[in-house]
Amino acid sequence: MNEPQQAKRVLIKGGTLLDPKRRSAEQVDIVIENGRIATIGRIEEASFSGDVVDARGHVVCPGLLDLHVHLREPGQEDKETIATGCQAAMAGGFTAVCSMPNTDPPADNRSVIEFIRERAAGRLVTVYPIAAITKGRQGEEISEMADLVEAGAVAFSDDGSSVKNTAVLRRALEYSSMFDVPVIEHCEDPYLDEGGVMNEGFVATELGLPGMPRIAEEIIVQRDLSVLGYVGGRLHIAHVSTRGSVELIRRAKEKGLAVTAEVTPHHLALTDEEMRRFDSNFKMNPPLRTAEDVQALIEGLRDGTIDAIASDHAPHCVHEKDELELEYAPFGVIGLETTLGVVLRVLVQEHSFPLAEVLDKLSYQPARIIRKEETLTIREGAQANLTVFAPEERWRVDANRFFSKGRNTPFRDWELPGRVRAVFNNGLWWRREA
Amino acid sequence: MSLSSRHLLGLQGVPREDIQLILDTAQTFKEVLQRPIPKVPTLRGKTVVNLFFEPSTRTRISFELAEKRLSADTVNFTASSSSVLKGETLRDTARNIEAMKVDIVVIRHSAAGAPHFLSRHVRANVINAGDGRHEHPTQALLDMMTLREKFGTLEGLRVAIVGDIANSRVARSNLYGLRTMGAEVALCGPRTLIPAEAELWGVPIFYDVDQAIAWADVLNVLRIQRERQARGYFPSLREYHMRWGITRKRLEKAGKPIVIMHPGPINRGIELDSDLADSEFSVILDQVTNGVAVRMAVLYLLSGETSVD
Predict the structure, then answer these.
(1) Are residues B34 and B126 in the same domain?
(2) Are the beta carbons of A326 and B111 separated by less than 8 Å?
(3) Does the beta carbon of B108 lie under 8 angstroms from any beta carbon of chain A?
(4) CB-based contact B90 A319, cutoff 8 Å
(5) How far is A137 from chain B (nearest CA, A)?
(6) Chain A neighbors of B196, CB-CB under 8 A
(7) Same domain (yes/no): B207, B238
(8) Which of A88, B75, B117, B309 could serve as A403's disulfide partner, Cβ 3.0–4.6 Å?
(9) Which domain holds residue B72?
(10) In Å, what is the CA distance from A102 to each residue of A79, A111, A408?
(11) CA-to-CA distance for B135 and B10, rounded, in angstroms?
């Protein structure tokens, strides 16, 4: 791939600036000088010396932020590295990602957070590390949260599993509340889901595949909300997948609880019917649910119950995912390079969401959860943190052309709208060749 | 006459004409098996590999015998566990099969969908000899053949499948195949072993085995895996036997003719009383005989050969 360049003097010509914060769309030219927005207005191309991005018909929006990404480094560099994960993010229009701490060793202490930040330094994509809630992600003792926040952790999560012990979760919410960082819970009762491969229901019954019941998620969502209501703090529910979870979160928000939630593109676009192919690229945790759940997730996004869209990008090697029996393959699919296209197709095209609203769920809303909204400001003098994409341009998903090391996409051969043409961040810019 | 698919991966969605053709062809082969020299040259020059990733004696022997009766060259590959544990992927296995120019692959695997995976990656015809908890189509076909012999038709026949429905590939294949052929199916077992939303199959579900017996013409009694008890699906083998075990007393109380099937191997005294297995109610040994004929039919029909002899 072509590498990002210094953004010395770049003109974004004729694009439609769509800032979800302002809910306004205007056709403007933007000049970026030394990584900062120098001018927003009308610039004659003839009088401009520097690189020009012809953005006519393109959308210019704040750089997208993904709250839920597995970069796999340190420890599983054969699946992904911080370098390749950041390239995939960039190609997908994301200028910032939150890295999940289930690395090897896990990000449960300052040195791992520092390692990640060091590896991510100087890149176009900003990596915000999430630290483990508990030491070794064992669910027993809370990690050194104060030190981790000081080292740069933006949130805590034991993603991959829930904090089993409710007393530990309580302490984590209490302790982390002193630093105003969220606890991100992967909600799953491990006993109910033990041995499960896919959503429990008629499709699983017909296929003879062990099920993962929706209540396994909802019981933990309910438990966590009860704890949150009792002790306070901030709770973020990762990858909500069931109608019951949406209803629980909606009610909690009505009561004023400090809870936020995210949904993945695959849970919005696919159902458990896909499992009939016995293709491990549709195996993820939480599993694909039913059409009724998908409908509830979309309604949850529409009414604000679900705040953000996050990819849960989870790369695996081909030999340990695609080439294995469905029952033995690990959970997880990649998503950084398909998220924008999938949500444009599902939400904007099929469910008539306003484009600005979808971009809000991919930028300001996730940024608000980790208190990074200011990094998205679009005004003269601010750092250029921008994504430029062609909303109408259609492209076919070719797993062999991903920048990610992962090939495990459930959207193989899908035709998607919305091609990212350029991204700007951290004094750098990148444009897609051809 | 030929089948509508190149593979036999399961019975779900298989058209009635295909099942009919397999059963009719099996009947022809059953006659072959009664000849002084029970062997035909039908598959001479064809190579069949039996890939058994899960321990199985009777299914493997039955396939092997069917292949030999058809004069095919056969190779057995037996691995006690999935290839994943050896560090080799199922895809690697497929690559090897391709390289060895095999004509037909018979696969038994502990994971559902393994035969489907294989069928996408090899040119050979794939026969599912049991995949996880999913399907075991040749078992259901031999069950149907046995019932057709016994009753003359499957139309309107009432078959109750009794036992661990949730984890049984035999149950699923029988359910799909029998209903396609016009039989009625009911499921019976403890609630914990009836899978989620099974009612959407639209068949009667009995928790009381006496009700199932009263309803049925045939009981297909499943083997109860001892590890299910260890994992808490029911309290004890004793209680299982008391509530769902098929006993002579239960059958006599029903006061009507009833046929007992079992896919084997039998846990004598748990799901089925020992003397019943060998009684006038049982067609269990007919099932075994028919197994060879049905597998010959499937091998022959998938091979593309056009002459039985």
Answers:
(1) yes
(2) yes
(3) no
(4) no
(5) 26
(6) 200-202, 204-205, 211, 213
(7) yes
(8) A88
(9) 16-134+289-303
(10) 13, 15, 19
(11) 6
How many domains are there within chain A? 2
Count CB neighbours of A303 within 10 A: 10
Give yes or no for B111 touching A (CB within 8 A): yes
Could you tell me the CATH number of the domain that includes residue B30?
3.40.50.1370
Strand partners of residue B205:
B187
Do B113 and B22 belong together in one domain?
yes
Contacts 24+ apart (CB under 8 A), B231-238: B233/B164, B233/B190, B233/B192, B233/B193, B234/B190, B234/B192, B234/B193, B237/B270
Q: What is the DSSP string of A193-260?
A: TTT--EESSHHHHHHT--EE-HHHHHHHHHHHHHHHHHH---EEE-S---HHHHHHHHHHHHTT--EE
Q: What percent of chain A is predicted at pLDDT more than 90? A: 96
Instruction: Give the integer Cα–Cα distance in Å for A156 and A149.
Output: 9
- Least CA distance to A194: which residue of chain B? B231
Cβ contacts of B109 on chain A, cutoff 8 Å: 325
Both tokens of residue A352? Answer: 């008539």
Give the type of residue at A331. Answer: F
* CA distance to partner chain A, nearest, from residue B85 (Å): 10
The single-letter code of the amino acid at A73 is E
Testing the interface with B: which of A194, A276, A323 to mutate, by most B Cβ within 10 A? A323
Predicted pLDDT at B2: 87
| Residue A349 reports pLDDT greater than 70 | yes
pLDDT attached to residue A362: 98
Q: From residue A339, give the alpha-carbon distance in Å to each of A88, A301, A311, A342, B184.
A: 11, 15, 6, 5, 47
- Cβ <8 Å between A326 and B169: no
Q: Of A205, A319, A325, which is closest to B113 when you measure between CB atoms?
A: A325
**Count of positions (residues) in chain A:** 434
The whole-number pLDDT of residue A261 equals 98
Interface test mutation site (partner B, options A317, A319, A320, A327, max chain B beta carbons within 10 A): A327
CA distance A318 to chain B (A): 10
Full pLDDT tens readout for chain B, 309 residues = 789 999 999 999 999 999 999 999 999 999 999 999 999 999 999 999 999 998 888 999 999 999 999 999 999 988 765 555 666 788 888 888 889 889 999 999 999 999 999 999 999 999 999 999 999 999 999 999 999 999 999 999 999 999 999 999 999 999 999 999 999 999 999 999 999 999 999 999 999 999 999 999 999 999 998 877 778 899 999 999 999 999 999 999 999 999 999 998 999 999 999 999 899 999 999 999 999 999 999 999 999 877 766
The CATH number linked to A422 is 2.30.40.10
Q: Which two tokens stand for residue A271?
A: 């159902």
> How many Cβ pairs closer than 8 A exist between chain A and B?
75
Nearest Cα to B128, choosing from B259, B14, B276? B14
Residues of A marked active site are found at 312
Residue B57, Cβ neighbours under 10 Å: how many? 10
* B110 and B146 co-located in one domain: no
**In chain A, what residues touch B110 (CB-CB under 8 Å)?**
327
Structural domains counted in chain B: 2
Q: Does A348 lie in the same domain as A395?
A: no
Q: Which amino acid is at A51?
A: D
